Amino acid sequence: MTTQLQTHDTLPPRAWSDLASLAGHRVARTPRGLSRRALNRACSYIAENLGERFTLDDLARQAGVSRFHFARLFRVSMGESPMAYLLKSRIERAKQMLLQDDRPVCEIAASLGFCDQSHLTRTFRRMTGLTPREFSRLQRNVD
């Protein structure tokens, strides 16, 4: 019995799945997601183009995979959809801009690719629980 365990311990992972499939067992494969390079390229593209309109095809092209494949693998890698990641990135940048600049919210909204100020405000409130103005006031009172 000991020699069998030692033999099985030295089998590569692929051999285990082959043995299990021969025995009629299903083997759960761990989802891998995008390669580190593809993920970095897609996330960099998003960060550099937050204020621009781009499509899922554009992001997939950066990662070098099909649109459907990209959306699925991005979710596996990041735990959220590309659109959710994009909105979260835009809101994080909006927070930075609100704290650094005295620009009006409508200018911040336009620079980050939101349709208008109300679109930014609705999204900001949904994700943070505060409006941009409330966030800005709270942060300035803390400082």
From TrEMBL:
The keyword Methyltransferase does not apply. Gene3D superfamilies: Homeodomain-like (1.10.10.60). InterPro entries: AraC_XylS_family_regulators (IPR050204), Homeodomain-like_sf (IPR009057), HTH_AraC (IPR018060), HTH_AraC-typ_CS (IPR018062). Residues 40-138 form the HTH araC/xylS-type domain. Keywords: DNA-binding, Transcription, Transcription regulation. Pfam families: HTH_18. GO terms for molecular function: DNA-binding transcription factor activity; sequence-specific DNA binding. This is HTH araC/xylS-type domain-containing protein. It comes from Steroidobacter agaridevorans. The lineage of its organism: Bacteria, Pseudomonadati, Pseudomonadota, Gammaproteobacteria, Steroidobacterales.
